[in-house]
Write a structure and sequence with these properties.
This protein has a domain at 44-146 and 184-272: Phosphoglycerate mutase-like (Rossmann fold), CATH 3.40.50.1240. Helices cover 32% and strands 17% of the residues. It is built from eight helices and eight strands; from the N terminus they run ββαβααβαβαααβαββ. The protein has helices at residues 34-37, 65-68, 84-99, 120-133, 156-163, 166-171, 183-206, 221-231, and strands at 21-22, 30-31, 54-60, 111-116, 137-139, 213-219, 249-256, 262-272. A hairpin with a 5-residue loop joins strand 7 and strand 8 (262-272). The longest helix is centred in the last third of the chain and has 24 residues, at 183-206. The radius of gyration is 19 Å and the shape is globular. InterPro entries: His_Pase_superF_clade-1, His_PPase_superfam, PGM_Phosphatase. Residues 1-47 are annotated as: Disordered.
Length: 275
């Protein structure tokens, strides 16, 4: 997906580890007790109703030939695969994801689960992450990129020549792509996954393991910005201001209640690039 609005990543602001947390180089954070496992929220008046945090690491795939040629590459077709530079980026993104809780973001849990869009480029990126963190890649349809329909494979100038201002109306979430999806629809399906993961996490916590967990979600530019925009309560017309660069990571921390509903969400990082 090509977008002219590029926002810089949110700077990394580490926070102190919760008391009683034991981190080593090779194993996830192991709280000394379930009460110490909870990271205190500065905002919630009902902290006792919250389970341990769930960290979602949203990873955009590495570049493809469509990315570098600035052509619309959506969720309606399986390809393209990663290019040679994209494969290098995927390996670096895998190392970045592996380093969470080990070398960076020391207050966050290790990534132990990997979900990915079914498209080739995300499956290839996710495979690199799965190998690095030791997790099987789970395919998740709701992480699929927006379907561009008739715009698939076109550049923005070609779309403007074909359909005038339609691309700008689409970017402001005012319309569907012809034969495809709206940005709002992508946000609805992507955020439904976030809610489901929060419910599953809360159920695991209530079943006896109230510990922080980290999950990588390997997806696409529009899908990631739509999930973040929904989490922040932004109107869909403003989601275009969020820009995850190829192979970057975006971190969303979810605080769920014991019943699995979401109480708070914190966007810790947007579009942190690989080096």
């Amino acid at each position: 997906m090509t977008d002219t609005h590029v926002e810089p990543p949110v700077p990394h602001r580490p926070h102190p580890l919760p008391e009683g947390t034991d981190l080593d180089a090779d194993s996830p954070a192991t709280p000394a007790s379930s009460s110490q496992a909870r990271v205190q929220s500065p905002f919630s008046p009902h902290e006792d109703d919250l389970v341990a945090p769930l960290t979602l690491v949203l990873v955009r795939h590495g570049v493809t030939e469509m990315t570098t040629s600035r052509r619309m590459s959506g969720g309606g077709v399986p390809g393209p695969p990663l290019s040679a530079p994209g494969r290098v980026q995927a390996a670096k993104a895998a190392d970045l994801a592996y380093g969470i809780g080990r070398r960076t973001w020391m207050n966050l849990p290790h990534v132990t689960r990997v979900l990915a869009s079914p498209l080739v480029r995300t499956q290839e990126t996710a495979a690199a992450i799965g190998r690095r963190v030791g997790a099987h890649v789970e395919t998740e349809e709701r992480l699929r990129e927006v379907v561009f329909g008739d715009w698939e494979g076109l550049t923005v100038p070609e779309i403007v020549e074909r359909d005038g201002d339609a691309i700008h109306h689409w970017r402001r979430a005012e319309t569907l792509a012809p034969g495809g999806e709206s940005i709002t629809q992508v946000g609805e399906r992507g955020y439904a996954l976030v809610e489901e993961l929060a419910r599953d996490h809360a159920a695991e916590c209530m079943a006896g393991r109230d510990v922080a967990r980290g999950i990588a979600l390997v997806s696409h530019a529009v899908a990631i910005k739509s999930i973040v925009g929904t989490a922040l309560g932004m109107p869909a017309s403003h989601w275009g201001a969020i820009w995850p660069s190829p192979a970057s990571i975006t971190i969303l921390q979810v605080r769920a209640r014991r019943d699995g509903t979401i109480a708070e969400q914190h966007v810790l990082c947007v579009g942190a690039p690989v080096e």
